[in-house]
Every structure is written in C-alpha cells, then in structure tokens.
Amino acid sequence: MTTSHHDSPFHFSPRTNRAAEIPWREWGPEAFAEAQADDRPVLLSISATWCHWCHVMDETAYSDPRVIDLIARRFLPVRVDADQRPDVDARYNAGGYPSTAFLTSEGDPITSTTYMDAEQMLAALERVQESWLVNRDGIVRDVDTARATREAERAMASARRNGGGLSPAVLDMAMDALEEARDTEHGGYRVAGDGARTELRFPPYEALRLLRYAYRRRDDDEALEHARATLRGMLDGAIFDADEGGIFRYATRPDWSEPHYEKLGRDQGRLLQVLGEWALSAPDAREEWRRAAEQTIEYLEQRLSRPSGGFHGSQDADPLYYALDPAARAEAAPPAVDARTYADATAVIARGLLVAGIAFDRSDWVERGLRAVDFLVSRMRGGEAGMYHAWDSSPSLLGLLGDQVHSMLALLDAYQVTGSGGYLEQARSLARSLDARWREPGRGFWDVSHDHEWTGLLAHPEQPQLLNADAAEAFLWLGRLVHDERYIDVAHEVLGEFAPRYLTAALGSVAAYARVVDRVLSAEPEIKVVAEYPPGEPDRGADPLIAAALRLPVASLTVQRLHGGPGSRDTGLLESLSLPLERTRVAYVCFGHTCSAPLTEPEQLMPAIEEMLSTPVF
Predict the structure, then answer these.
(1) 612 Cβ partners below 8 Å, 6+ apart?
(2) 494 sits in which H/E element
(3) 305 three-class SS
(4) Which end of the chain is flanked by fewer CB atoms within 10 Å, N or C?
(5) Which of 429, 328, 332 lies closest to 376 in space, CA to CA?
(6) What is the rounded distance in angstroms from the CA atom of residue 456 to the CA atom of residue 112?
(7) DSSP string, 218-286
(8) Domain of 543?
(9) Could you tell me which of 246, 248, 274 has the C-alpha nearest to residue 515?
(10) 240 vs 197, more confident
(11) Mean pLDDT across the stretch 286-310?
(12) Into how many domains does the chain fold?
C-alpha cells in the first residue's frame, strides 16, 4: 500500500499526468492579491485525494499542452483539496468532484462546473477569458447581483430565527420526511442533498440514528423495520466491500450497486456508530451487524490506522483494483491512502470504535478508540484556539467548526467509557472556545471562527444545520453530565436558530436536528456510578456497572463515574443530587436532581429507569 505524502502542497493523480506543470498557487490572500495585481481571473480547482474523476481530469484536461499554456498565461490557478479545506469546498463546490470555479480577484464566482475533458476545458477557458477582457461590466453586474441575493438570504434567515421555539412535533415531522423519501424496495432514500429525486444512494447514517432513537423512544416497530431494510441493503450490496471490509462513499444505483470506490475514514466511523447503536437496540440482528463491524475495523486497522493513534483520511478510488477478484487483489498494489490525519474524521472514527466496542463487548476496540482520542488531544489541540484540522508530521489550519464539535463529542464518549476527568476537562475547554470564538451570544455556530481567514466567500460565515445539531448535542450532553444549565441553554439557543427552517435542509440534517431537539425537550436517564476509586485517574478498564449502563436499550442517556471517597472533586455534584459519599461501588438512576435508591447489580438499572418513568413527575 502507498500513502500520498506531501512534499508538494498539491495532490495529483498517482498515474502519469502533467497537471503539476500548471503553476498552481495555494488558496489564500496572497494568491488573490497576485491575481488583482496581474488583472487575471482565478481558476479554482477543487479536487480530492480519493476522487477517481479528479485523477482522470489531471490525466486529460490538465495534461493537455493547450490547457496548460492558456492557464499559465491568462489565469491565476489555485488548487484546493476538499478534505484539507472543507471551508473553501463548502462555498465553491459546483455539485461534485472535481469542481472548477472561475473567480474574480476578490473571490466572487463568475461561473463553475464539475468534470470537463480537455476540449470542454479549453472552451470554458476561452469563454471566461473573452468575457474578462470585453465584458467586465457584465461580470461586475452579475457579481453584484449574486452578492445582493446572498445578503438578502442571510437577512431573511436571521429574521426567521427563533421563530417559535422548539416543538415536540419536530420528531414526528422528521419521521414523516423519512417515510416520504423512503425507498421501500431497496432501503435508503430517493432524494439527494438538495431534495431532488436521484438514483444515487449515499448511506443515510443520520437517518438510521434517528430511526433507532424513535424505535426506543416510542416503541416504534416501523422504525425498526425501516432501518433493518436499509442496513440490509447497504451491507448486502456492493457498496460494502465484503472482501476487504469497509464501506464505499456511495452507490450509483438504487440497489446499492455500482459504487464509487473511494473509502473515507469518517464514513467508516459513522457506520460503526450506527451498527453499535442498533446492536444495543435490536439484539436479534446483533451477530449480523457484529460481522460488518469486525470487517470495517479490520479495514481501518489494515489501511487507515496510524501507529501514533490517529487515522489517515481516506483511500483512493481505483475501479481497476476493485474489479479484481480477492486473489488478484492480494497480488496487486492497493489504492493509495491520504497520509494526512483530519481531526473531525479521526474523532468520528474514535466515536464509532467506542460505541461498537461497548455494543459488541470488545475491549480492544474501546482501547483503540481511546488511543485515537488521545492522539487528538496530544497532537492536534491548539490551546484556546481549539483543534487543528489536519496533521501530517505537524498540525495545520485552525478555526473549523467540525473539528471542534466532533472532537468534543469524542471526548465526552471517552469520558463516559472511562470516567477520566481529563477527557471531561478537555471537553469543557473546547466548549468554552466554541462559545467564545464560533458564535455570537444567543445564536447558532458559524462554520469558521471569528478570526479565521476571510478570503473571498470565506468572509461570509455559514451555519450548517447538521454541525449545529451536533454542537447542540455536545453542549446538552456536557450540561447534563456536570449539571450546569448554561451549557443546556446554549443547546436551546443553537437549535432555536433553525426552528423555522429546519425542514428545508438535507434529509440527514433534518434527522440529526430532530433527534437532538427531542433529546433537549425530553427527560432522559442519567446513571451515576459512585465509588471510592483509587487516587488519580480511574482505571481505563471495564467497570461492570458502567458497561451495563452504556448497553441499556434506551433512546438516550448519560453515564458518569463519580469519586465517592474523602476529598473527592465530585463532592459538589454529589451534594447537589443529595447522594452520599460511597466507598463501595453503587449506581443511581437520576432524572434531573431526582435519583433512585442505590443499586448494586447491573440488572437493577433498567427496572429502576422504568419505575421512575412511570411516576407522574416524569
């Protein structure tokens, strides 16, 4: 296996090509200043290390001598990797990979498209060049119109925010949206991210998580069958690599066949989380899902794992390799792997390993997930500035929301599993940074920090609904763990930002939003395990009461290990819950500040939850 190392800041096709002969610049204010000084339009190429058609474009259009010459003479070429700069990708992507955008020297789009062959690229270059030279006034008018439209949309969104608070009807409405889009024959959904009908099938991770939540929250058997059909279609379809393990990014046919062969690390983590959550909720299919989890983790360890604890970002799509039978694959060189580690993706993988490790009773998976979290803290933390985005011998790029949110969630997962106060303190520190640097008081989170680079459209921060739902869940979770209403208030404010318009987002964003809103509005059990633990950090090994609590078949809960001995740092929380110091390990089921009698056996936990839920106060 080869990894794509980065002596150059740019990645090109691993096959023969001349794309590197184009004088590419990195994204940044320097490139746009150069374009302005030379009075040239910017050609922005958005590629990805795993993208097959990006490589084809490198080998064809960007290797054509006429294209190379015209770009070098008349344009300022900028090359961006979508995984390295998701902030740029989010603003300039034309609807797929590769994307080619032509920009003014201020970063405003002139026109954009996806894949082009050499002749199409030549024609596009000539059109933009001619327009730049003879129709500059028209370009300026179009840019001004687009700017005015964006400003009007932002003003409208701001005026609609908090337009009615959070409604318990959100869960029903989201479930209706899933049902309307459902493919009853093959599983999955018949809609793309923009709501249009499509033959493509992307694994619907967030929808599957909402279905599991609804199944346990409301005893919704239809949600169970809905999810089973989708998981069966995915795991039996060609989108899941039965030979080497792992899931491909998407399939081009409704029956989950004819996949695009890239494998992204974050998708493996999402799949593991879904498999683990469903295994805890529907144990009759547990063995089927266990095998898929085992294959996925085998793939991660063989292809994407770093010895230092993190994970590589992705593996290239190579149709010729995946057309081989298993024996021939074993003799062939596997597709290249992106050498970089991305904080958001590694955090998602860590969470998947932790959830799957608990669900399938695999302490080695739990330990591997903890090593990934430790890597994030030790290698990718930038102090009060939050998490770096990428790591390849050293960290780079601060300021992206996804890295903060996914790392915070992974830290909270690690804290629940281990009881290690260090993970909790890191999560609290990230929460402080998020609140101070990624949002205005009372609002949702921006996708970039206040002090992030503001080149081109980056000057206009965005509020992605899915990431804001994840952030709200992290703050809700932290607030319930430490019994601090300030964090829970942030969750309410963030979710309120999207209340008037959440159904207009992509289906996965709707699903995630609905699940978190329902959590905020619902009472959920908190399991507090109290004992006189040894000095220092609690043992990373299994605590039987903690393990049992994490495996409870409930929609959602929080689990916490508290030190009950003399001099405990948890004394204040224990007193607020009216719980005594305990030398012998006991568990309490709490809803808010009301707790059960002490419990000593794992099998007592679920009856205690059911008894408390049956009382009128809940």
Answers:
(1) 525, 589, 591, 594, 596, 618
(2) helix 485-496
(3) strand
(4) N
(5) 429
(6) 15
(7) HT-HHHHHHHHHHHHHHHHSTTB-TTT--B-SEESSTTS-SEE--EEHHHHHHHHHHHHHHHHH-GGGH
(8) 527-613
(9) 274
(10) 240
(11) 97
(12) 3
pLDDT the model gives residue 5: 44
For residue 445, the 8-state DSSP code is B
Q: Is residue 564 part of a domain?
A: yes
**Bridge-partner residues for 263, per DSSP?**
315
Mean pLDDT (the chain, rounded): 94
Report the 10 Å Cβ neighbour count for 195: 13
- In this structure, the answer to whether residues 368 and 514 fall within a common structural domain is yes
* CA neighbor of 216 nearest in space, from 507, 466, 518: 518
Is residue 602 within 8 A of residue 545, CB to CB? The reply is yes
Tens-digit pLDDT profile for residues 144-169: 999 999 888 887 777 766 555 899 99
Which pair of structure tokens corresponds to residue 304?
Answer: 């994407």
Q: Which of 522, 537, 554 is the last residue of a domain?
A: 522
C-beta of residue 379 within 8 angstroms of C-beta of residue 389? no
CA distance 133 to 41: 10
Phi, psi of 49 (to 5 degrees): -65, -25
Q: For 335-375, how does the pLDDT look when each residue is reduced to its tens digit (9 = 90+)?
A: 999 999 999 999 999 999 999 999 999 999 999 999 999 99
For residue 25, tell me if it sits in a domain.
Answer: yes
User: Under a CB-based contact definition with an 8 Å cutoff, are residues 520 and 166 in contact?
Assistant: yes
Residues whose CB falls within 8 Å of the CB of residue 243, separated by 6 or more in sequence, listed in order: 326, 329
Residue 185: HSE in the Cβ half-sphere, 13 Å Cα cutoff: 7
Read off the tokens for 147. Answer: 């700017």
Q: Is position 511 within any domain? A: yes
pTM (two decimals): 0.96
* Bridge partners (DSSP) listed for residue 338: 4
For residue 515 the two structure tokens come to 């699940």
In this prediction, residue 38 carries a pLDDT of 98
Q: DSSP string covering 379-431, please?
A: HSB-GGG-BEEEESSSEEEE-BHHHHHHHHHHHHHHHHHH--HHHHHHHHHHH
Cβ 390 vs Cβ 342: under 8 Å: yes
349 within 8 A of 266, measured Cβ to Cβ: yes
